[in-house]
Design brief:
The strands form four sheets. Strands 9, 10, 11, 12, 13, 15, 16 and 17 form an eight-stranded mixed beta sheet that branches. The protein has a six-stranded parallel beta sheet with strand order 1-8-7-2-3-4. Helix content is 43%, strand content 17%. The protein is elongated. The protein is an alpha/beta fold.
Length: 534
Protein backbone atom coordinates (compact mmCIF):
# COMPACT_ATOMS: atom_id res chain seq x y z
CA UNK A 1 0.00 0.00 0.00
CA UNK A 2 2.91 2.36 0.73
CA UNK A 3 4.16 2.09 -2.85
CA UNK A 4 0.69 2.92 -4.20
CA UNK A 5 0.51 5.95 -1.93
CA UNK A 6 3.91 7.17 -3.16
CA UNK A 7 2.86 6.69 -6.79
CA UNK A 8 -0.40 8.59 -6.22
CA UNK A 9 1.42 11.46 -4.55
CA UNK A 10 3.90 11.58 -7.45
CA UNK A 11 1.05 11.87 -9.97
CA UNK A 12 -0.49 14.74 -7.99
CA UNK A 13 2.81 16.60 -7.98
CA UNK A 14 3.27 16.01 -11.72
CA UNK A 15 -0.15 17.49 -12.47
CA UNK A 16 0.43 20.50 -10.23
CA UNK A 17 3.85 21.04 -11.78
CA UNK A 18 2.36 21.13 -15.30
CA UNK A 19 -0.31 23.62 -14.21
CA UNK A 20 2.36 25.77 -12.52
CA UNK A 21 4.52 26.00 -15.63
CA UNK A 22 1.57 26.84 -17.87
CA UNK A 23 -0.05 29.39 -15.63
CA UNK A 24 2.85 31.05 -13.87
CA UNK A 25 3.83 34.40 -15.32
CA UNK A 26 5.04 36.18 -12.23
CA UNK A 27 8.65 37.29 -12.01
CA UNK A 28 10.68 35.65 -9.26
CA UNK A 29 11.50 37.95 -6.35
CA UNK A 30 15.24 37.55 -6.67
CA UNK A 31 15.30 39.17 -10.18
CA UNK A 32 14.84 42.59 -8.62
CA UNK A 33 18.20 42.30 -6.86
CA UNK A 34 20.22 41.28 -9.90
CA UNK A 35 22.93 43.38 -11.41
CA UNK A 36 22.88 43.70 -15.16
CA UNK A 37 25.68 42.02 -17.07
CA UNK A 38 27.14 45.41 -17.92
CA UNK A 39 27.53 46.21 -14.20
CA UNK A 40 29.71 43.15 -13.55
CA UNK A 41 33.41 42.63 -14.01
CA UNK A 42 34.46 39.47 -15.87
CA UNK A 43 37.89 37.93 -15.54
CA UNK A 44 39.68 34.70 -16.39
CA UNK A 45 40.32 32.39 -13.45
CA UNK A 46 44.08 32.79 -13.88
CA UNK A 47 43.73 36.31 -12.48
CA UNK A 48 42.64 35.04 -9.08
CA UNK A 49 44.76 36.34 -6.22
CA UNK A 50 44.54 35.75 -2.49
CA UNK A 51 41.28 37.24 -1.21
CA UNK A 52 41.22 36.10 2.41
CA UNK A 53 38.40 38.47 3.36
CA UNK A 54 36.16 37.69 0.37
CA UNK A 55 33.24 35.32 -0.19
CA UNK A 56 33.16 33.11 -3.26
CA UNK A 57 30.04 31.74 -4.92
CA UNK A 58 30.90 28.99 -7.38
CA UNK A 59 29.12 26.52 -9.63
CA UNK A 60 30.28 23.02 -8.70
CA UNK A 61 29.94 21.56 -12.19
CA UNK A 62 31.82 24.47 -13.80
CA UNK A 63 34.39 25.59 -11.24
CA UNK A 64 35.41 22.34 -9.57
CA UNK A 65 34.67 19.21 -11.64
CA UNK A 66 36.62 18.43 -14.81
CA UNK A 67 33.79 16.68 -16.66
CA UNK A 68 30.57 18.38 -17.71
CA UNK A 69 28.56 15.13 -17.70
CA UNK A 70 26.47 14.35 -14.61
CA UNK A 71 25.27 10.99 -15.89
CA UNK A 72 27.99 8.88 -14.16
CA UNK A 73 27.10 10.28 -10.74
CA UNK A 74 23.41 9.48 -11.18
CA UNK A 75 24.32 6.01 -12.41
CA UNK A 76 26.30 5.50 -9.20
CA UNK A 77 23.32 6.42 -7.05
CA UNK A 78 20.98 4.29 -9.16
CA UNK A 79 23.28 1.27 -8.89
CA UNK A 80 23.95 1.65 -5.15
CA UNK A 81 20.58 2.69 -3.72
CA UNK A 82 18.27 1.03 -6.21
CA UNK A 83 18.87 -2.13 -8.16
CA UNK A 84 20.73 -3.23 -11.27
CA UNK A 85 17.39 -2.86 -13.09
CA UNK A 86 17.18 0.83 -12.12
CA UNK A 87 20.66 1.41 -13.48
CA UNK A 88 19.75 -0.41 -16.69
CA UNK A 89 16.68 1.83 -17.18
CA UNK A 90 18.85 4.92 -16.72
CA UNK A 91 21.32 3.60 -19.28
CA UNK A 92 18.56 2.90 -21.83
CA UNK A 93 17.33 6.48 -21.41
CA UNK A 94 20.82 7.94 -21.88
CA UNK A 95 20.31 8.82 -25.60
CA UNK A 96 17.11 10.70 -24.69
CA UNK A 97 18.93 12.50 -21.88
CA UNK A 98 21.55 13.68 -24.37
CA UNK A 99 18.97 14.89 -26.90
CA UNK A 100 16.62 16.90 -24.69
CA UNK A 101 17.45 20.19 -22.99
CA UNK A 102 19.88 20.03 -20.07
CA UNK A 103 17.23 20.82 -17.45
CA UNK A 104 14.88 18.13 -18.78
CA UNK A 105 17.72 15.65 -18.94
CA UNK A 106 18.43 16.40 -15.29
CA UNK A 107 14.79 15.83 -14.36
CA UNK A 108 14.76 12.46 -16.15
CA UNK A 109 17.88 11.32 -14.31
CA UNK A 110 16.47 12.47 -10.96
CA UNK A 111 13.18 10.67 -11.56
CA UNK A 112 14.76 7.36 -12.58
CA UNK A 113 17.41 7.49 -9.86
CA UNK A 114 15.43 8.67 -6.83
CA UNK A 115 11.81 7.64 -7.31
CA UNK A 116 10.75 5.47 -4.37
CA UNK A 117 14.19 5.57 -2.71
CA UNK A 118 14.36 5.92 1.06
CA UNK A 119 15.62 9.37 2.04
CA UNK A 120 17.91 8.03 4.77
CA UNK A 121 19.60 5.61 2.36
CA UNK A 122 20.28 8.44 -0.07
CA UNK A 123 22.01 10.50 2.60
CA UNK A 124 24.24 7.52 3.44
CA UNK A 125 25.18 7.14 -0.21
CA UNK A 126 25.96 10.85 -0.39
CA UNK A 127 28.44 10.57 2.49
CA UNK A 128 29.89 7.07 1.92
CA UNK A 129 29.97 6.56 -1.87
CA UNK A 130 29.93 9.88 -3.70
CA UNK A 131 32.96 11.70 -2.13
CA UNK A 132 35.47 9.23 -3.66
CA UNK A 133 34.14 9.67 -7.20
CA UNK A 134 33.76 13.45 -6.88
CA UNK A 135 37.36 13.70 -5.64
CA UNK A 136 38.55 11.62 -8.59
CA UNK A 137 36.81 14.09 -10.92
CA UNK A 138 38.00 17.24 -9.13
CA UNK A 139 40.51 19.51 -10.85
CA UNK A 140 43.55 20.60 -8.88
CA UNK A 141 43.42 24.06 -10.46
CA UNK A 142 39.82 24.52 -9.34
CA UNK A 143 40.65 23.59 -5.75
CA UNK A 144 43.66 25.93 -5.66
CA UNK A 145 41.44 28.78 -6.87
CA UNK A 146 38.86 28.17 -4.13
CA UNK A 147 41.49 28.00 -1.39
CA UNK A 148 42.16 31.71 -1.79
CA UNK A 149 38.77 32.66 -0.31
CA UNK A 150 37.70 32.97 3.30
CA UNK A 151 34.16 31.64 2.87
CA UNK A 152 32.70 29.42 0.18
CA UNK A 153 29.13 29.00 -1.05
CA UNK A 154 28.53 26.26 -3.61
CA UNK A 155 25.73 26.10 -6.15
CA UNK A 156 24.90 22.90 -8.00
CA UNK A 157 22.21 21.67 -10.36
CA UNK A 158 22.47 18.21 -8.82
CA UNK A 159 20.28 17.26 -5.87
CA UNK A 160 21.89 18.56 -2.71
CA UNK A 161 21.77 15.10 -1.09
CA UNK A 162 24.29 13.83 -3.65
CA UNK A 163 26.99 16.43 -3.25
CA UNK A 164 26.65 18.17 0.13
CA UNK A 165 28.80 15.76 2.16
CA UNK A 166 31.65 15.91 -0.37
CA UNK A 167 31.66 19.70 -0.47
CA UNK A 168 31.50 20.26 3.28
CA UNK A 169 33.88 17.48 4.32
CA UNK A 170 36.54 17.78 1.60
CA UNK A 171 36.19 21.28 0.13
CA UNK A 172 35.45 23.23 3.36
CA UNK A 173 32.30 24.70 1.81
CA UNK A 174 30.13 26.57 4.30
CA UNK A 175 26.80 26.34 2.51
CA UNK A 176 25.50 24.25 -0.39
CA UNK A 177 22.60 25.37 -2.57
CA UNK A 178 21.29 22.55 -4.71
CA UNK A 179 18.11 21.02 -6.03
CA UNK A 180 15.73 19.57 -3.48
CA UNK A 181 13.66 16.47 -4.23
CA UNK A 182 10.03 16.20 -3.20
CA UNK A 183 9.39 13.48 -0.65
CA UNK A 184 6.44 11.62 0.84
CA UNK A 185 6.69 9.89 4.22
CA UNK A 186 10.48 9.57 4.01
CA UNK A 187 10.59 8.41 0.36
CA UNK A 188 11.66 10.50 -2.60
CA UNK A 189 9.10 11.07 -5.35
CA UNK A 190 11.62 11.93 -8.05
CA UNK A 191 10.40 15.51 -8.68
CA UNK A 192 12.52 18.59 -8.06
CA UNK A 193 11.25 21.41 -5.89
CA UNK A 194 10.33 24.58 -7.78
CA UNK A 195 11.42 27.13 -5.17
CA UNK A 196 15.20 26.73 -5.49
CA UNK A 197 15.30 29.97 -7.44
CA UNK A 198 14.14 31.95 -4.41
CA UNK A 199 17.23 31.25 -2.30
CA UNK A 200 18.69 34.58 -1.17
CA UNK A 201 22.48 34.78 -0.84
CA UNK A 202 22.12 37.54 1.75
CA UNK A 203 20.27 35.16 4.06
CA UNK A 204 22.98 32.55 3.64
CA UNK A 205 26.10 34.61 4.36
CA UNK A 206 24.47 37.29 6.53
CA UNK A 207 23.75 40.94 5.82
CA UNK A 208 26.93 42.05 7.60
CA UNK A 209 29.21 39.91 5.47
CA UNK A 210 27.50 41.02 2.28
CA UNK A 211 29.45 44.25 2.67
CA UNK A 212 32.53 42.21 1.75
CA UNK A 213 33.18 41.68 -1.91
CA UNK A 214 31.36 38.63 -3.28
CA UNK A 215 33.20 36.90 -6.13
CA UNK A 216 31.58 34.41 -8.46
CA UNK A 217 33.18 31.54 -10.39
CA UNK A 218 31.24 29.85 -13.17
CA UNK A 219 31.76 28.53 -16.65
CA UNK A 220 28.76 29.19 -18.90
CA UNK A 221 26.58 32.05 -20.08
CA UNK A 222 23.50 30.48 -18.52
CA UNK A 223 25.13 30.55 -15.08
CA UNK A 224 25.65 34.31 -15.37
CA UNK A 225 21.87 34.75 -15.25
CA UNK A 226 21.52 32.51 -12.19
CA UNK A 227 20.24 34.18 -9.02
CA UNK A 228 23.25 32.93 -6.99
CA UNK A 229 25.52 35.24 -8.99
CA UNK A 230 23.18 38.25 -8.88
CA UNK A 231 25.19 40.06 -6.18
CA UNK A 232 28.62 39.25 -7.65
CA UNK A 233 30.27 42.36 -9.05
CA UNK A 234 33.27 40.28 -10.11
CA UNK A 235 32.86 36.96 -11.91
CA UNK A 236 35.61 34.62 -13.05
CA UNK A 237 34.68 32.51 -16.05
CA UNK A 238 36.21 29.08 -16.69
CA UNK A 239 35.65 27.59 -20.13
CA UNK A 240 35.07 23.90 -20.80
CA UNK A 241 38.30 23.79 -22.81
CA UNK A 242 40.23 25.03 -19.79
CA UNK A 243 38.69 22.39 -17.52
CA UNK A 244 39.78 19.64 -19.93
CA UNK A 245 43.41 20.64 -19.39
CA UNK A 246 43.13 20.46 -15.59
CA UNK A 247 45.03 17.81 -13.68
CA UNK A 248 43.18 15.51 -11.31
CA UNK A 249 43.52 16.41 -7.65
CA UNK A 250 46.13 14.10 -6.12
CA UNK A 251 45.37 12.22 -2.91
CA UNK A 252 48.19 14.03 -1.14
CA UNK A 253 46.30 17.31 -1.59
CA UNK A 254 42.99 16.12 -0.12
CA UNK A 255 41.98 18.27 2.85
CA UNK A 256 41.71 15.01 4.81
CA UNK A 257 42.61 11.41 3.93
CA UNK A 258 39.97 9.31 2.18
CA UNK A 259 40.22 6.17 4.34
CA UNK A 260 36.69 4.81 4.13
CA UNK A 261 34.36 4.67 1.15
CA UNK A 262 31.67 2.28 0.05
CA UNK A 263 30.64 1.30 -3.47
CA UNK A 264 30.39 -1.88 -5.49
CA UNK A 265 31.80 -0.15 -8.58
CA UNK A 266 35.53 0.52 -8.82
CA UNK A 267 35.48 3.19 -11.53
CA UNK A 268 33.17 6.07 -12.38
CA UNK A 269 30.38 4.55 -14.56
CA UNK A 270 30.46 6.61 -17.71
CA UNK A 271 27.97 5.61 -20.39
CA UNK A 272 30.53 3.46 -22.19
CA UNK A 273 31.73 1.79 -18.99
CA UNK A 274 28.12 1.20 -17.87
CA UNK A 275 27.35 -0.53 -21.17
CA UNK A 276 30.41 -2.78 -20.82
CA UNK A 277 29.48 -3.57 -17.20
CA UNK A 278 25.95 -4.68 -18.04
CA UNK A 279 27.20 -6.70 -21.00
CA UNK A 280 29.74 -8.38 -18.73
CA UNK A 281 27.25 -9.48 -16.03
CA UNK A 282 25.99 -12.70 -17.72
CA UNK A 283 29.55 -13.84 -18.38
CA UNK A 284 30.56 -12.70 -14.89
CA UNK A 285 28.09 -15.06 -13.23
CA UNK A 286 29.40 -17.99 -15.27
CA UNK A 287 32.93 -16.98 -14.30
CA UNK A 288 31.88 -16.92 -10.64
CA UNK A 289 30.54 -20.47 -10.93
CA UNK A 290 33.71 -21.67 -12.68
CA UNK A 291 36.09 -20.10 -10.14
CA UNK A 292 34.06 -21.34 -7.17
CA UNK A 293 33.93 -24.87 -8.59
CA UNK A 294 37.69 -24.90 -9.16
CA UNK A 295 38.39 -23.82 -5.59
CA UNK A 296 35.98 -26.21 -3.87
CA UNK A 297 36.32 -29.37 -5.96
CA UNK A 298 39.93 -29.34 -7.17
CA UNK A 299 43.25 -29.64 -5.31
CA UNK A 300 45.17 -26.39 -4.85
CA UNK A 301 47.90 -27.40 -7.33
CA UNK A 302 45.26 -27.87 -10.03
CA UNK A 303 43.03 -24.95 -8.99
CA UNK A 304 45.77 -22.30 -9.06
CA UNK A 305 46.60 -22.56 -12.81
CA UNK A 306 42.91 -22.77 -13.71
CA UNK A 307 42.16 -19.65 -11.67
CA UNK A 308 45.07 -17.87 -13.37
CA UNK A 309 43.65 -18.91 -16.74
CA UNK A 310 40.32 -17.30 -15.75
CA UNK A 311 42.05 -13.99 -14.96
CA UNK A 312 42.40 -14.47 -11.19
CA UNK A 313 45.95 -14.04 -9.90
CA UNK A 314 47.23 -15.17 -6.49
CA UNK A 315 50.81 -14.03 -5.84
CA UNK A 316 52.50 -15.71 -2.89
CA UNK A 317 55.86 -14.99 -1.26
CA UNK A 318 57.48 -15.96 2.02
CA UNK A 319 60.08 -14.03 3.99
CA UNK A 320 62.93 -15.77 5.77
CA UNK A 321 62.20 -16.84 9.34
CA UNK A 322 64.51 -16.66 12.33
CA UNK A 323 65.70 -20.21 13.13
CA UNK A 324 66.30 -19.39 16.79
CA UNK A 325 62.75 -18.19 17.32
CA UNK A 326 61.27 -21.13 15.45
CA UNK A 327 63.32 -23.77 17.24
CA UNK A 328 62.77 -22.33 20.70
CA UNK A 329 59.01 -22.12 20.29
CA UNK A 330 58.75 -25.53 18.66
CA UNK A 331 60.64 -27.14 21.53
CA UNK A 332 58.73 -25.37 24.29
CA UNK A 333 55.27 -25.60 22.77
CA UNK A 334 54.68 -28.50 20.45
CA UNK A 335 51.52 -27.53 18.68
CA UNK A 336 50.15 -28.78 15.44
CA UNK A 337 49.06 -25.47 13.98
CA UNK A 338 50.28 -21.90 13.49
CA UNK A 339 48.48 -18.63 14.12
CA UNK A 340 48.38 -16.48 10.96
CA UNK A 341 47.64 -12.82 11.70
CA UNK A 342 46.43 -10.98 8.59
CA UNK A 343 45.35 -7.51 7.68
CA UNK A 344 41.81 -7.49 6.30
CA UNK A 345 41.08 -6.64 2.66
CA UNK A 346 38.03 -8.77 1.78
CA UNK A 347 35.83 -11.39 3.34
CA UNK A 348 37.80 -14.02 1.40
CA UNK A 349 41.21 -13.34 3.00
CA UNK A 350 41.45 -16.67 4.89
CA UNK A 351 40.09 -18.55 1.87
CA UNK A 352 42.92 -17.44 -0.42
CA UNK A 353 45.47 -17.77 2.35
CA UNK A 354 44.49 -21.45 2.45
CA UNK A 355 44.85 -21.65 -1.34
CA UNK A 356 48.33 -20.11 -1.22
CA UNK A 357 49.53 -22.28 1.68
CA UNK A 358 47.86 -25.43 0.38
CA UNK A 359 47.00 -26.17 3.99
CA UNK A 360 43.74 -26.32 5.94
CA UNK A 361 43.07 -23.08 7.82
CA UNK A 362 40.33 -22.24 10.32
CA UNK A 363 39.18 -18.62 10.11
CA UNK A 364 38.39 -16.70 13.29
CA UNK A 365 35.75 -14.02 12.75
CA UNK A 366 34.72 -11.07 14.87
CA UNK A 367 31.32 -10.44 13.35
CA UNK A 368 30.08 -12.47 10.39
CA UNK A 369 26.55 -12.93 9.10
CA UNK A 370 24.97 -16.37 9.31
CA UNK A 371 24.61 -16.51 5.53
CA UNK A 372 28.33 -15.83 5.06
CA UNK A 373 29.18 -18.60 7.53
CA UNK A 374 27.02 -21.08 5.63
CA UNK A 375 28.54 -20.11 2.28
CA UNK A 376 32.14 -20.20 3.52
CA UNK A 377 34.23 -22.98 1.89
CA UNK A 378 36.47 -23.17 4.99
CA UNK A 379 35.71 -23.63 8.66
CA UNK A 380 34.84 -20.42 10.52
CA UNK A 381 34.66 -19.88 14.28
CA UNK A 382 33.17 -16.78 15.88
CA UNK A 383 35.10 -14.95 18.60
CA UNK A 384 33.09 -14.07 21.71
CA UNK A 385 35.35 -11.08 22.62
CA UNK A 386 35.66 -12.67 26.08
CA UNK A 387 39.34 -13.18 26.85
CA UNK A 388 39.09 -16.44 28.78
CA UNK A 389 36.66 -18.12 26.40
CA UNK A 390 38.53 -17.03 23.28
CA UNK A 391 41.90 -18.08 24.69
CA UNK A 392 40.60 -21.56 25.54
CA UNK A 393 38.95 -21.90 22.14
CA UNK A 394 42.12 -20.74 20.38
CA UNK A 395 44.24 -23.25 22.27
CA UNK A 396 41.89 -26.02 21.20
CA UNK A 397 41.84 -24.90 17.56
CA UNK A 398 45.62 -24.56 17.40
CA UNK A 399 45.98 -28.10 18.71
CA UNK A 400 43.86 -29.22 15.75
CA UNK A 401 45.46 -27.19 12.97
CA UNK A 402 46.27 -23.76 11.52
CA UNK A 403 44.24 -20.70 12.46
CA UNK A 404 43.88 -17.33 10.68
CA UNK A 405 42.64 -14.14 12.32
CA UNK A 406 42.20 -10.56 11.08
CA UNK A 407 42.56 -8.35 14.19
CA UNK A 408 41.38 -5.22 12.37
CA UNK A 409 37.88 -6.68 12.61
CA UNK A 410 36.78 -5.17 9.30
CA UNK A 411 38.06 -4.48 5.80
CA UNK A 412 39.73 -1.32 4.53
CA UNK A 413 40.06 -0.60 0.80
CA UNK A 414 42.63 2.16 0.93
CA UNK A 415 46.34 1.79 1.91
CA UNK A 416 45.68 2.12 5.62
CA UNK A 417 45.67 -0.36 8.51
CA UNK A 418 43.08 -0.04 11.26
CA UNK A 419 43.96 -0.63 14.90
CA UNK A 420 44.82 -4.26 15.69
CA UNK A 421 42.88 -5.79 18.55
CA UNK A 422 45.46 -7.20 21.04
CA UNK A 423 43.37 -10.31 21.67
CA UNK A 424 45.44 -12.47 19.31
CA UNK A 425 48.79 -11.92 21.09
CA UNK A 426 47.67 -14.04 24.06
CA UNK A 427 46.45 -16.94 21.95
CA UNK A 428 49.73 -18.36 20.65
CA UNK A 429 53.44 -18.35 21.30
CA UNK A 430 54.26 -18.16 17.58
CA UNK A 431 52.61 -15.52 15.40
CA UNK A 432 53.02 -15.44 11.64
CA UNK A 433 52.17 -11.95 10.28
CA UNK A 434 50.60 -12.09 6.82
CA UNK A 435 50.58 -9.02 4.57
CA UNK A 436 47.57 -9.14 2.24
CA UNK A 437 46.64 -6.87 -0.62
CA UNK A 438 43.93 -7.18 -3.25
CA UNK A 439 43.05 -5.33 -6.42
CA UNK A 440 39.92 -5.08 -8.55
CA UNK A 441 39.08 -3.79 -12.00
CA UNK A 442 35.27 -3.59 -12.01
CA UNK A 443 33.66 -4.62 -8.69
CA UNK A 444 34.79 -4.22 -5.10
CA UNK A 445 34.67 -7.42 -3.10
CA UNK A 446 33.57 -5.79 0.14
CA UNK A 447 30.87 -3.46 1.42
CA UNK A 448 29.75 -1.85 4.67
CA UNK A 449 26.15 -0.87 3.94
CA UNK A 450 25.21 -3.46 1.30
CA UNK A 451 24.57 -7.19 1.49
CA UNK A 452 27.82 -8.66 2.79
CA UNK A 453 26.97 -12.21 1.74
CA UNK A 454 27.29 -10.95 -1.87
CA UNK A 455 30.93 -9.91 -1.30
CA UNK A 456 32.41 -13.19 -2.64
CA UNK A 457 30.03 -13.05 -5.62
CA UNK A 458 31.15 -9.58 -6.70
CA UNK A 459 34.79 -10.40 -6.00
CA UNK A 460 34.74 -13.49 -8.21
CA UNK A 461 32.71 -11.73 -10.93
CA UNK A 462 35.48 -9.19 -11.38
CA UNK A 463 37.33 -9.72 -14.69
CA UNK A 464 40.84 -9.55 -13.20
CA UNK A 465 40.91 -9.75 -9.38
CA UNK A 466 44.21 -10.43 -7.70
CA UNK A 467 45.57 -11.29 -4.26
CA UNK A 468 49.10 -10.65 -3.05
CA UNK A 469 49.96 -12.76 -0.01
CA UNK A 470 53.27 -12.41 1.79
CA UNK A 471 54.28 -14.35 4.90
CA UNK A 472 56.49 -12.22 7.13
CA UNK A 473 59.04 -13.26 9.72
CA UNK A 474 57.55 -15.01 12.73
CA UNK A 475 56.98 -13.06 15.94
CA UNK A 476 56.95 -14.40 19.49
CA UNK A 477 53.52 -14.19 21.07
CA UNK A 478 52.39 -14.22 24.69
CA UNK A 479 51.33 -17.70 25.75
CA UNK A 480 49.73 -16.22 28.84
CA UNK A 481 50.03 -13.18 31.00
CA UNK A 482 51.46 -15.12 33.95
CA UNK A 483 54.88 -13.51 33.48
CA UNK A 484 53.38 -10.02 33.61
CA UNK A 485 51.34 -8.24 36.22
CA UNK A 486 48.68 -5.55 35.88
CA UNK A 487 49.68 -2.62 33.72
CA UNK A 488 52.82 -4.39 32.45
CA UNK A 489 50.72 -7.20 30.94
CA UNK A 490 48.34 -4.71 29.35
CA UNK A 491 51.22 -2.67 27.92
CA UNK A 492 52.90 -5.78 26.53
CA UNK A 493 49.72 -6.81 24.71
CA UNK A 494 49.26 -3.47 22.99
CA UNK A 495 52.94 -3.08 22.17
CA UNK A 496 53.06 -6.49 20.50
CA UNK A 497 49.82 -5.84 18.59
CA UNK A 498 51.18 -2.49 17.40
CA UNK A 499 54.46 -4.16 16.43
CA UNK A 500 52.67 -6.73 14.24
CA UNK A 501 50.57 -3.96 12.69
CA UNK A 502 53.73 -1.96 11.94
CA UNK A 503 55.46 -4.96 10.36
CA UNK A 504 52.53 -5.60 8.03
CA UNK A 505 52.20 -1.88 7.27
CA UNK A 506 55.90 -1.63 6.35
CA UNK A 507 55.68 -4.70 4.10
CA UNK A 508 52.70 -3.26 2.20
CA UNK A 509 53.62 0.42 2.35
CA UNK A 510 50.37 1.13 4.23
CA UNK A 511 49.86 3.77 6.91
CA UNK A 512 48.96 2.54 10.39
CA UNK A 513 46.03 4.26 12.11
CA UNK A 514 44.18 4.01 15.41
CA UNK A 515 40.79 3.85 13.73
CA UNK A 516 38.54 0.89 14.58
CA UNK A 517 35.73 -1.16 13.11
CA UNK A 518 33.23 1.01 14.95
CA UNK A 519 34.65 4.18 13.37
CA UNK A 520 34.28 2.72 9.88
CA UNK A 521 30.68 1.62 10.27
CA UNK A 522 29.61 4.85 11.95
CA UNK A 523 30.96 6.75 8.93
CA UNK A 524 29.67 4.47 6.18
CA UNK A 525 26.56 2.79 7.57
CA UNK A 526 25.50 4.78 10.61
CA UNK A 527 25.86 1.82 13.02
CA UNK A 528 28.59 0.08 15.00
CA UNK A 529 28.88 -2.84 12.58
CA UNK A 530 27.72 -5.51 15.00
CA UNK A 531 25.86 -8.43 13.44
CA UNK A 532 23.13 -9.56 15.80
CA UNK A 533 22.19 -13.23 16.02
CA UNK A 534 19.13 -14.67 17.63
Amino acid sequence: MASYAILLEALKILCSSIIYHKGSSSTPRYLDKRLSLSQRKFERQTSLVRKSDHIVVFAVEEALLKSASLFPFFMLVAFETGTIFRGLVLLVLYPLICIVRRDWGLKIMVMVTFFGINKESSYKIGSSVMPKFFLEETGEEGVEGLKTFKRKVAFTHMPRVMVESFLKDYMDVEHVVGSEIKEFHGYFLGFLEENIGEVDLEKIVGEKDMNSKVVGICGSRSSLHNHMFSTCKEIHVITRAERRTWTTLSKEKYTKPLIFHDSRLVSKPTALLAISTFMWLPFAFLLFVFRTTCYILLPAKVARPLLSFSGFRVLFSEAGHSSNTTERNSNDYRRKGLLYVCNHRTLCDPVYLKLALDKDVTALTYSLSKMSEIMSPIKTVRLTRQREQDAAMMKKLLSEGNVAVCPEGTTCREPYLLRFSPLFVEMSDVIVPVALDSSFTMFYGNTASGYKFLDPLFFLMDPHPSYTIRLLEKVEGLASCQDHDGEAAKASKFELANHVQAEIGNALGFECTKLTRKDKYLILAGNDGTVKHK
